[in-house]
Amino acid sequence: MKALARVLPIMAVVLIALAIMACAPAAQPTAAPPTAAPQPTAVPPTTAPQPTTAPQPTSAPAQPTQAPSGGATDMDALYQAAKAEGMLTTIALPHDWCNYGGVIDGFKKKYPGITVNELNPDAGSGDEIEAIKANKDNKGPQAPDVVDVGFAFGDSGKADGLFMPYKVATWNDIPDSAKDPDGYWYGDYYGVMSFMVNSDVIKNPPQDWADLLKPEYKSAVGMSGDPRTSNQAIQTVQGAALAMGGTVADPTKGLEFFAQMNQAGNLVPLIANNASVAKGETPIRITWDYNALAGRDSMNGNPKVDVIVPKSGRIAGVYVQAISAYAPHPNAAKLWMEYLYSDEGQLIWLAPPGYCHPIRQDAMDKAGKIPADLKAKLPSTEGAVFPSNADLIAGKDVVVKNWDKVVGADIKSGQ
Amino acid sequence: MAQAAVAPPKTSSDLIARFGGIPLAWVGVLPFFLFALLFLVLPSLSLFTGSFTAADGNFTLQNILDLSRPDIVSAYTLSIQISVVTAVLGALFGFFIAYALVMTGVPGPVRTSMVTACGVASNFAGVPLAFAFVAALGRTGFITQFLRDTFNYNIYDHGFNLYSFLGLSLTYLYFQFPLMVLVMMPALEGLKREWREASQNLGASSFQYWRYVALPILMPSILGTMILLFGNAFGAYATAYALTGGRLQLVTIQIGAQIRGDVLHNPGLGYAMALGMVVIMAVSILAYTWLQRRAARWLQ
Amino acid sequence: MKRSTVWGWFWVILGVLYLVIPLWGAFDFSLRAERDVIGFAAYARAFADDDFWRTFIFSNQMALISIVISVLLIVLTAYWVQLKLPQLRPIVEFITLLPFVIPAIILVFGYIKLYSRPLAVGPISLLPPLTNTDFSTNILLVAGYVVLALPYMYRSVDNGLRAIDVRTLTEAAQSLGANWITIMFRIIMPNLRAALLSGALLTFAIVVGELTIATFLGRPAFGPYLQLLGQHKAYEPAALSIASFLLTWGAMILIYFVTRGTETQTTGAH
Asked: Does the domain made of B66-298 have the CATH classification 2.60.40.10?
C-alpha cells in the first residue's frame, strides 16, 4: 500500500535509531540492585559484623549502620561487599575542584571492580539534596550514594533524614567542630577566601580587603557567584565583614564594603570564572584559594596569576561529606569514605592541583605524614576563622536579604 | 470548555462530518493530551503542591502571599520588561531577515547557511553566550578596544555598560531574532506569489499589498511567534545569571536561588514563584488571543 | 525586484554581523591559549578527547529520535486542532508554552519520582521502573526533549498549517477516497516541509545543548560534557563553544538537505 510505503521509511529510521541506542555499549553498566542478601565472600570474624545486607527500604530509611568508630574496620570485607554492589554514584564532583579527578582515579586504581558513575558535576549543594529526595525510591544510577555539600547543609540534611551515619576509621582525627557527633556528616576539606589576580593586567596586586577599594582597581573585581545563591559569594561577603570589623553572623560591614566598592566602580557584576580572569574582564577574582591555585596552574603562565590570601579577614570554608540514607550502594559509599579519609585520599586533596586543606591536616601534620615540600606549596592560612554553623546561617540570612538593598543598584534600563 | 459540539464548519463538509463524528473528533488530540499528561503535567504537579508547602512541610498560604513582596513584584516586572522588549525587537529584526531570505533574490547557498546558522544561534545561550558578548562588548572586548583605539571613543565612558538591562537585552536578542526567522519562514513561504502579482495587476502599491493582503494573513503567525519569543525570554535563566548575576533581579534567577541554591532557602517560595510564571503565561495567551481577534478586525 | 534584492542583502548582512561578531570575540580569545601564540592548541586538546565524540554522537542520536516523535505528535495535533477543534486552540497553545515556565529541574525530578517506581493500576503493573536501564532512561530523556521542543515545534507547524488551506486539501483528498494516513503523510506533511524543517532544526539545537535533564538522568550527553569541561579551564570553554557551534551547524545543514530534498509539490497549492 502506498500509504504504508510512505510510513515505512520513517518507521525504519526510528527503529534503526532505537536499535543503535539499545545496542550501544552502555557507558555505565546499570548494576541491578543487589537482590536480598549479597553473598559476602569473607564474613568478618571481628565483633561488630559489617552489615553487608543493605536493607532495601521501600519506605523506612536504612537502619543506621554503625561501624566501630576509629577502630578496626575490616577493609577487605567492605571491599568485597562494595565490589558485589559494583558501582558508586557520585554527584557534584568537578574534576578540577580539589583534584577530585585525581581522587576518583586513585579510588578506581586501589579498588578495581567498582565503577564510578559521576552525576552532574555542576550541581550546587541544593541540587544534591534535591537529588537525594527525588531518588528516594529509585535504585537506578540516577540516585547519588554520596554527597559533598556546604557546611550549612550538614545539619539540615540530617534533620530531614537524608543521611546515613557512618564513622570512618580515622574518625578521631577530624576536629569536633567539623563533624556531627553521631556521624551523619563530617568535614572533608577546607579552603580560605583569597584573591586570584591576573598579574599581566594588574601590575600591583592587592594584599588585603581594604586595597580592593583603591581607584587603581577600577572595574577589576569580580565575585565567583551570586551572593543571593552561592555559598562562595556569601562567604566572600562574610570574609570582607571580618576585615572591616564585623562578624560572620552579622556581615553588615561586609555588605557596606561591597556597596562602597560598587559605588567606586570597582565591582564588575559578571560572575567571575577562570575565563574572565584570563580575558582580563575580571582580573581580580575573589574565590577559594584552592580554586585560585588550580586555576593558576591550569593557565600555565598564560596569563600569569598571583594568588593572595588577604592579610586580615581570613575566612575558612568547610565542605562536608555524607552518605545518602537511600543510597543504592551503601557499601561502596562507605568504602569511598574510607578512601577519602585515608592518608592517601587526604594527600591527593592537598597536593597540586588539589590545593585543598584536608580536614585531617593538623593530625597528619603532627604525625609527620605531610611532606615538607607539599606544605610549602600552600599559602599560609594562619588566623583563619572557622565559623560555626549557626553563625554561617545567621550571616547568610543577612546577606541574602540585604544584598540588593545595600549594594545592588536596581537595574531598570540603560544604567 | 468541554463542549462536545464541534463549531459549525464554514464550508460544507459533509465528508468530514461523516468521518469525524462528535466523540471521534477528540481522538486526534488524544495522543497529545496523553503525552502532555504523562510527561509534562504529572511531573510538574510538585510545582503546584510545593507552592503550598512551608519549609517545615506543613500546608501554608504564606508562599503565595509572599509573592506580593516588593522585591518579588519588581522581579516579575523586570522579567516581563525584558521579555517584552526582546520579543518585540527580536520579532521585528527577525521578520525582516525572514522576509529577506524568502522574498528577495538572495542566492540559495546564502539562504541555507543563514537559516541553519539561525537554527544554531536560537539555542546558543547561557555561559558561552555571555562570554561571547563579554569578549565582544565587555570592557576588554574587541569591539570596545577597536572603537577606543581607532576612533578614540570609549563606549563605557559614554554610558554604555554590558552588565545592564541594555546589555542583557542585546544578549537575549542573539537567540530571539533567529528564533523569529526560523519560525516565520514557513508562514512567509505560504504567501503565494500569485497574490502579489494579482494585487500589482489591480494597481496596488507595495505598501497597499502589505497593508491589505500580506499582513492580515501573516498577523496570527506574527503574534503567535511573538508570544513564543516572550515565553523564551521569560523563562531564560543561565544567560542572565552568567552575565549579571548579583545585579539583575529576574524571577528565574530568584527561583533558581530558592530551589537550587548553594545556601539554605525556601523551596516553597520558589515553587510559588514558578506558579506565578505559569499564571503570567496563561494571561499572555489570553491577551494574545484577544489581540489576534482585534487585529483581524482592524486589518479587515 | 532589484530594489528588493538590495534590501534583502541589507538585512541578511545585518543579521550575519549580529551573529558573527560575538562569536568572533570568543574565537579570538580561544586562539590565545598559549602565551603570545595564536594557535589551535585549545581546539587540539578539545578534539583529542574521546568523550567529546562519544557524547556528541549520543546527543545527535537522541536529537534525531526526538525530532521524529515530535513531528508525528505535533503535526497530528496541530492539524486536528486547526481542522476540527479550533475551540481547543488556546488550551493546546497554553500547554505548549508551559515548558518555558516549568524549570527543567522540576521536570526531571518529576520524572525520577514518577517513573522510578513501576507504573501500576491497582495490582497490575503497566510499566516497570523506567530509570533502571539505559534504554528505558533514554525513553525518559527523549520524552523530556520532546517536551522542551514543544513550543518551537508547535509554533512552526501551526504557522505552516495556516499558510496552506488545510480544509480544502483534506476535503479534496477524502473525496478521492484517501484515508487519514494517506492524508497525513502524502498531503499534509509534504506541504509542511518548511515548517517541519524549522521545527527540526530548533529541536536539534535544543537537544544537543540541553543540560539539566541529561545530567540528572545520568545520560552521557553533549551538554553536560561541555559544562564539565568548561568549569575551571579558561580557554577550552571558548574553543568548545565555537567548535560545538560549527559542528551543530554542519549537522543542521545535513538535516536541511535531507528535508528539503526534492521540492515536489503534490497538490497545486504552490
From this structure: no
